[in-house]
Amino acid sequence: MIQVSKYGRINDAPVWQARLRSPTGMEVDILSLGATIRDWRVPVGNGLRSIVLGFDRVEPYLGYPTYFGAIVGRIASRIAEARFVMDGQTFRLDANDGSNTLHGGREGLSVQNWEMETDTNTNTVRLSHHSPDGHMGFPGAVDFTVSYRLTGNNLNIEMNGLPDRRTPISMVQHNYFNLGQKRDILDHELWIDAHHYSPYDADLLPVGSILPVAQSRFDFSTPRPIRRPDTNDHDLDFSTVLEARRPLEKPVAYLKGEDGRVRLELFTDRPALQVYNSVTLDVPERGSGGRYLSKYSGICLEDQMLPDALHHADFPSIIRDPDHPYHHWCRFAIRTG
């Protein structure tokens, strides 16, 4: 059974919450606002443990640009100088990160109130949103849909975008994970099936090259803690390049909480994984369950296309059209002990 309730209001419209439950005891709360995973609870011992950061009220989701659990886009990550050229025409976008565009602009998909419907037969929540031509500067109208399906300890996510003309699309689900019971995630163990990464400049924009992770701080090809024993600098905000010929039925990454009782595995069809461990997070109020929302409070594993692909011809294209719409799937599998 899927429980649907009114969670709050924005702009005189209701924000809905759908609660998915599985026979294994896992619970996931989905908001219509931003198609957001508000909370995600997994059975540990005799109780439930929340494994994502979020809020207990609607208002903070609009008051703080954290993207907690939201679907972000039309374009995830940054677009340099808030503009791009396509088919000989320059499109100017909303600059919400200095001179750059971040996660689709100030009114991107993460702050839209999506339409919601549920399917109890498949234990699925489906959300839809129509983005009009020119919104945040992007060309073409796009019909976006997102589905969350909970099966046992697996959360399956599908993202689709059907444009009416050529336009760039690159979405991501933006969870902040904290699988343990500590204030930070520095003692979580992380593994990523990637031997290369895309270097960034000082503005966190790709320089265009692809380098080996070996002997760099970005090497998680062998499982290791996020905390670096040789320094106090544990910041992570980088993009790995996943193995192109990998079998899609195998995970591209896993994250394990510091007490070893919760392990999360990520499966995806995307070519890159952005890793961000809340380097700039600084929210003055507590989150759901009283969690602190500060530096290192959570870690994002953002499966996506390579950032700023619009300015790097060697990166896989993110241009879609009516005959080649956007489709993206990922799956999170939880193991508890």
Helix-strand layout with pairing:
Elements lengths: L2 E8 L2 E9 L5 E5 L4 E9 L2 E4 L8 H5 L6 E3 L5 E2 L3 E4 L2 E4 L8 E2 L12 E5 L4 E8 L10 E10 L2 E10 L3 E2 L3 E3 L14 E4 L1 E5 L12 E2 L11 E2 L11 E6 L10 E4 L5 E7 L3 E5 L23 E5 L14 E2 L5 E11 L1
Antiparallel strand pairs: 1-2, 2-3, 3-4, 4-5, 6-16, 7-10, 8-9, 11-12, 12-13, 13-14, 14-27, 15-26, 17-20, 17-22, 18-19, 18-21, 21-24, 22-23, 23-27, 24-25
Keywords for this entry:
single chain, 337 residues, mainly beta, Beta-galactosidase, Chain A, domain 5, 9-stranded antiparallel sheet, 5-stranded antiparallel sheet, 1 helix, 27 strands, 1% helix, globular
- Spatial extent as radius of gyration: 19 Å
What best-fitting shape do the alpha-carbon axes yield? globular
Order of helices and strands: EEEEEHEEEEEEEEEEEEEEEEEEEEEE
Question: Strand share of the residues?
Answer: 35-45%
CATH architecture annotation: Distorted Sandwich
Mean pLDDT: 97
The low-confidence parts are: none
- CATH topology assignment: Beta-galactosidase, Chain A, domain 5
N-to-C CA distance: 26 Å
**Which structural category fits the helices and strands?**
mainly beta
Number of helices: 1
Helix share, percent: under 10%
**DSSP E strands, number:** 27
In the CATH scheme, the class would be Mainly Beta
Major sheet size, sense and barrel closure: 9 strands, antiparallel
| Sequence of strands across the biggest β-sheet | 11-12-13-14-27-23-22-17-20
Number of domains: 1
